[in-house]
């Protein structure tokens, strides 16, 4: 079993994305089982640090594949199969299953005094519980509960303090049959949170921070969210550098998926998150958001967290996190238009409204 990072040498990004009533006809193919279709592929090759790109319309794909070597053709066919495969329902223990064919909202509940946006607002358990119930009522599908801040420069806390913050809230919410993800890097916290009623592990270190976390994920059989982060929260924003930000993140996430599968975790229990803001510059974040469809080649649901993050503030010149709603919604919509299945947000009501308009507009008929 190995979690070592290896570079793949071919990648496929769906292009020409269209939302609505398209169909699989050789001109369009379905993206991951949702209501988005694509009409072309960007085929990316990385050989000895040299990157080449080629755009192939689906209408000419068969002819293109015939001209390739057996290895290249087989790799492209495998990636295309992962891109088009319908994402399976995410089964949860003691909570309703999640259907990734429609956008899911993960509502953020930080039970910390120092989180970057709402630190201290919900440190009181009664306020936390009330806010979680409010988010579910507003349209959240999952409540993501964390007891340790992972903002840039954040210091780690003890497992005991983390559990003291999150366990009472998880227990109260689990009684209401609410899907809950535990946002933690620590196996001991994950274990007790799941015992208290959490249904999903959301680890910013992709199960790499604590060597026992993979064991907990395997034993509990809950879905896992594997996020990319460059470094730790304390150091991640100190001059992050990549050879190629998109391909490096892809390779890392692919290696962590393979690590989990080799450990006995089925692919249908895995979700990936490219980690916006976790060891990335503004330009890195924009590259990820603009090219998010690339990550469908990993063959699992994609979660993205853009809500109120600092790159939005830097672009619009807004230092107050609570004033970044419009930018957060715009970034989220760009991700959803590329087939992201889960959006992690602070502002559930507004995000649900934006999704409703996006989906309604996609049902509109084009007339000439």
Description:
- With 368 residues, this protein is an alpha/beta fold.
- It folds into 2 domains: 75 residues, no CATH class; 259 residues, TIM Barrel, CATH 3.20.20.20.
- Helix content is 35%, strand content 17%.
- It has an 8-stranded parallel sheet with strand order 12-11-10-9-8-7-14-13.
- A hairpin with a 2-residue loop joins strand 5 and strand 6.
- Helix 3 crosses helix 4 and helix 5 packs parallel to helix 6.
- The longest helix is centred in the C-terminal third of the chain and has 18 residues.
- It is globular, with a radius of gyration of 20 Å.
- The model has no long low-confidence stretch (mean pLDDT 92).
Reported CATH architecture of the largest domain: Alpha-Beta Barrel
Count of DSSP strands: 14
Indicate the CATH class of the largest domain.
Alpha Beta
Question: What's the structural domain tally?
Answer: 2
Topology as a string of helices (H) and strands (E): EEEEEEHHEHEHEHEHEHEHEHHEH
Computed structural class? alpha/beta
Task: List the total number of helices.
Answer: 11
Distance between the termini: 57 Å
| Unreliable stretches covering 5 or more consecutive residues | none
In which order are the strands of the major sheet placed? Answer: 12-11-10-9-8-7-14-13
Q: Helical proportion?
A: 25-40%
From the alpha-carbon coordinates, what is the Rg to the nearest angstrom?
Answer: 20 Å
Look at the structure and name the CATH superfamily of the largest domain: Dihydropteroate synthase-like
User: According to CATH, what is the topology of the largest domain?
Assistant: TIM Barrel
